[in-house]
Every structure is written in C-alpha cells, then in structure tokens.
Specification:
191 residues
Length: 191
C-alpha cells in the first residue's frame, strides 16, 4: 500500500521539487507561529521551525508522512528575512553583493511518533552586484516572498552567483536528495 505523503508548506518551490522527484503528495498547511526562542543561533532556527510546522500538521493526518521545511539566509550568522518592500530587497541584495552567505534549510519528516529532522547548509558566493543589476532584479522579479531577497533559479542567480558549495536545491528551499534518502531509509518509501 503506498504511503500518503503531505507537504506542510505553501512554498511553490518545495512543491515543484517534490513534483520533479515524481513523489505523489498533497499539500496541507497549518498556521504556525514562526518565531524562535530569543538567542537561538541562526543555524538552528530552520530545523526548530520545521519541527513546529510538522507538529502542527501531523496531528491532523494520522498515518501520513508529513514533510515540513524552513529556510533561512545567514550573513555573518545573522538571519536575513524576507524583504518588506523594494527598498528592503535592494538593501539585502547590496549586503549580499560580493560576499559569501549561507543558506540553511531545516527539514522535519514525521509519521505518527516517528520523526527524522535535519539541517543542510549551502554556501553561496555572490559576485559584486551593480546598483543597476539590483534595481533590475527587484523591479522585474519582485522577490518579496524569498528569504534573502532572491531565488537562485531566477535571473539574479544566473547572472550574479559566482559559485556555491553544497546542494543547489537546498538554496531553492528543499534538499530534495536528502529528503528522498530519508524517505527511503527511515520510512521505507519506494521512490
């Protein structure tokens, strides 16, 4: 009997990655307070929030496998959130220009009492960005729903990123290869 899999996320990119992996799933989103304890290191926040999201959905769907995730962009250990407006997006991209930052995605996979949570970190190196490039990207792509004010798969990634160390799909929002390995190893899902 196939496993029922639930993606506890409204992210179109996470949905796209599961679809690319040809995993059959449904989407169910629970309203979760996405604050973390004061003083929690930025590297620990994504896994903490992923666990909160998984907990919120898991009790609604008995015997289903719930996949929850959260992604943060860290610059010098400080979390760069989603921009509030165009000016904020430009400020964030100016901070990332010519620098390395880390993208950390926490994943929590649950089925009833069984739970596997982990975090994956990818280093992303931006080339120096001109004011014109930043202006073009913010104007045309409106990255207001994206942590760090960018999406690696969009124009800014193609033109502005010099290199990455780690999982490309992690930067998109879900380390899909690691998710598949956990599903196969720990939840005996045939993929």
């Amino acid at each position: 009997m196939p496993h029922k899999i639930i993606l506890a996320s409204q992210s179109p990119r996470r949905k796209q990655l599961l679809e690319m992996a040809e995993i059959q799933f449904d989407v169910l989103i629970a309203d979760v307070d996405e604050t973390n304890p004061p003083g929690m290191p930025g590297e620990e926040v994504p896994e903490f929030l992923a666990r909160k999201k998984a907990d919120a959905v898991a009790h609604l769907v008995k015997d289903a496998i719930v996949i929850a995730a959260d992604t943060v962009v860290l610059l010098d250990h400080h979390i760069l959130g989603k921009p509030t407006d165009a000016a904020d997006a430009k400020t964030i991209l100016s901070q990332l220009s010519g620098r390395m930052h880390k993208v950390v995605t926490g994943v929590c996979i649950r089925k009833n009492e069984q739970e596997v949570c982990f975090s994956i970190t990818t280093e992303v190196y931006f080339r120096p960005l001109t004011t014109g490039q930043i202006e073009h990207y913010v104007t045309h792509y409106k990255p207001y729903d994206k942590a760090g004010a960018y999406a690696i798969q969009e124009w800014i990634g193609v033109t502005g990123i010099e290199k990455i160390n780690g999982d490309y799909y992690n930067v998109m929002g879900l380390p899909i290869g690691d998710v598949i390995n956990v599903l196969k190893r720990d939840f005996i899902v045939t993929i």
